[in-house]
Design a protein that fits this description.
The complex is a heterodimer. By secondary structure, chain A is mostly helical. Chain B is built from seven helices and eleven strands. In chain B, the strands form five sheets. In chain B, strands 10-1-11 form a three-stranded mixed β-sheet. The longest helix of chain B has 12 residues. The N terminus and C terminus of chain B are likely disordered. The chains are: A mainly alpha, B alpha+beta. At the A-B interface, helix 3, helix 7, strand 1 and helix 8 of A face strand 3, strand 4, strand 5, helix 3 and helix 4 of B. Strand 1 of chain A pairs antiparallel with strand 4 of chain B, so a sheet runs across the interface.
Chain lengths: 311, 264
């Protein structure tokens, strides 16, 4: 696939916003004392990330003014379900933000955090299933797609929560968020590596023979039927070289997983000042973008079998 | 009529496939005869010509007379080479929407703009509802859908819905533009659910097959495989011999006009 930058930004930003909401909810539910202003600031950051994601998703549409129609087919379409769940989740977090003004209000301490965790999980599931449900894009049609959307969102969200706690001097919140960030980032690294390994060994079910029904063992395209490309050649081929893909994978590993884990671990053991969590946030952002770009680029669409040779 | 069709299907291979209760009784489709397609692209240009002025158009053309022209087409003719030199075969391969009986592009559409028409099984896009999210194109393993870059809506083969139902046209003209244009008769059009139709007979008698059967999309369009054609003066190929007497000389081999004339 040719990664659409709008979708890469949308899924990365919204995922981080969801992860931040979950980190804050876990802190509240486990009784970590936090200033209401810190909780509200965190929720506001999450809302901004989710709205940025929503706005970015509009850029992917050819007809953004008709976007409201996308809620219609929730019975069959994961995209439609996401379109419903995302604004509902933003509304839920806005409600939490409003009611978190008073520190003692029970809905802000129990019901809303629990609902927010459920909402975040549901949104991750809808987003990931948009890709995982396409059975013939075999790189995506696997359980690790869902697992990794959740883990990467949790990782970025808890790194973000650590950075915000460090900036606000909320040491109790940092004591929860930093270990959470470290553990989840390491698990996400393992899980993403597992997905890469699986996809590297993948033998695609569709071949040029099954695509054309021509049984010959040696079969090659001599013309795709047009000389200067089409939607099919622009949408489904990323045109990056194998070397570039390897470099982007290296960037993803170092910046999304290794460096943030190292920096957060340094804070936890006391070798680095708390503000190193901010550095972890800054290095992780490009790493997550690279990783999500790779998620799209590595998916080989079976239609590409029909578009091999220009002549 | 439904019961009669079910009874007829019960005898064939279709009995093994679970047919949904709301499956269309009719299924219009194309059957592409790879044996006679000469790769002239007349179906491509006639499709573009008809549809850019018809209900599905206008179809975008970018830089049509420049160095890198691109645009929206519903139909493409590709070329493949099979075998190892000198025993190679060139196969021209027209490709358009297959109007799957279980179209993966339809359920993923978030707006309901993509739909499969109940009355005749044609997969269509309602351009007024399409938001141009391209998800249906991702969900089509065949690459049959192309976004119109000017209108920013998804477009695809309509089987010329605005021709085949136009009562002002003569019955002979109520066929998709590509079918009318094909000079070799390589494109057949009809109802594949009607066992007596030309397309059903062709599929049955000529070994019609589906593309990418591994994804169970059950394409309505089928392809007829290449056959070895006798060359003048040479003995006929084994599978065209008189089965009762395989060694018998083939009468009129190479001179039989029926072996090269369009079958219609």
């Amino acid at each position: 696939m040719n990664p659409a930058f709008s979708v890469v930004v949308f899924t990365t930003a919204a995922g981080a916003g969801q992860g931040l909401v979950v980190a804050l909810a876990i802190a509240l539910l486990t009784g970590v004392p936090m200033a209401p202003s810190f909780v509200r600031a965190g929720l506001l950051v999450a809302i901004v990330l989710l709205v940025v994601g929503l706005a970015s998703s509009f850029l992917h549409l050819g007809r953004p003014l008709r976007a409201w129609r996308a809620a219609a087919m929730w019975r069959t379409s994961w995209l439609s379900r996401e379109v419903i769940v995302l604004p509902a989740f933003i509304a839920l977090i806005a409600l939490w933000w409003l009611s978190a003004r008073e520190p003692g209000s029970p809905p802000a301490r129990l019901a809303l955090p629990i609902a927010a965790i459920a909402g975040a999980a549901l949104l991750w599931y809808c987003t990931a299933m948009i890709y995982a449900c396409l059975r013939f894009i075999e790189e995506w049609a696997q359980p690790l797609t869902v697992v990794n959307f959740i883990l990467l969102g949790l990782s970025s969200g808890s790194v973000l929560a650590s950075a915000l706690a460090a900036l606000a001097g909320e040491n109790r919140a940092l004591a929860l968020a930093a270990p959470l960030a470290l553990v989840v980032t390491l698990i996400a690294w393992v899980s993403r590596t597992a997905a890469w390994r699986r996809n590297a060994d993948l033998r695609h079910r569709s071949t040029l023979q099954s695509a054309t029904g021509i049984a010959s063992a040696r079969l090659a395209q001599t013309s795709m039927g047009m000389s200067a490309g089409s939607f099919n050649t622009r949408e489904f081929f990323h045109r990056a070289s194998a070397v570039a893909l390897r470099r982007i994978k290296g960037i993803a590993i170092v910046f999304a997983f290794a460096l943030p884990a190292l920096l957060v671990a340094g804070v936890i053991v006391g070798a680095l000042p708390a503000l190193a969590c901010v550095a972890a946030l800054i290095v992780q952002a490009p790493g997550l973008i690279a990783d999500r770009w790779l998620f799209f680029a590595q998916a080989k669409h079976p239609q590409n079998l029909y578009y091999q040779v220009v002549s | 009529m439904i019961a009669a069709l079910k009874a007829l299907f019960g005898r064939g291979e279709a009995a093994a496939v679970a047919v949904p209760a709301d499956a269309p009784v009719r299924q219009l489709a194309l059957v592409i005869d790879l044996n006679v397609c000469v790769g002239c692209h007349a179906c491509v240009t006639s499709c573009k010509e008809w549809n850019t002025g018809g209900a599905a158009g206008p179809l975008f053309d970018d830089n049509p007379y420049g160095a890198n022209p691109t645009g929206t087409f519903f139909n493409r003719v590709q070329t493949y080479e099979a075998g190892v030199f000198p025993n190679t075969e060139t196969i021209h391969f027209p490709k358009s929407c297959l109007h799957c009986e279980d179209p993966p592009c339809v359920p993923v559409c978030p707006t309901g703009a993509s739909y499969k028409r109940k009355s005749d099984g044609i997969v269509l896009v309602d351009y007024d509802k399409c938001i141009g999210c391209k998800y249906c194109a991702w969900a089509c393993p065949y690459g049959a859908r192309e976004i119109d870059e000017a209108r920013q809506v998804m477009t695809k083969c309509t089987l010329c819905v605005d021709r085949i139902e136009d009562a002002t046209l003569s019955a002979e003209d109520r066929k998709p533009a590509c079918v009318k244009a094909c000079p070799t008769g390589a494109r057949l059009f009809g109802d594949v659910k009607d066992p007596d139709s030309e397309v059903s007979r062709a599929i049955r008698e000529r070994g019609g097959y589906s593309l990418m059967p591994e994804w169970q999309t059950r394409p309505a369009n089928q392809y007829l495989p290449r056959r070895i054609t006798a060359v003048a003066g040479s003995p006929k190929h084994a599978d065209e011999r008189d089965e009762a007497n395989p060694r018998a000389p083939v009468a009129g081999a190479g001179a039989d006009p029926a072996s090269i004339a369009p079958r219609r």
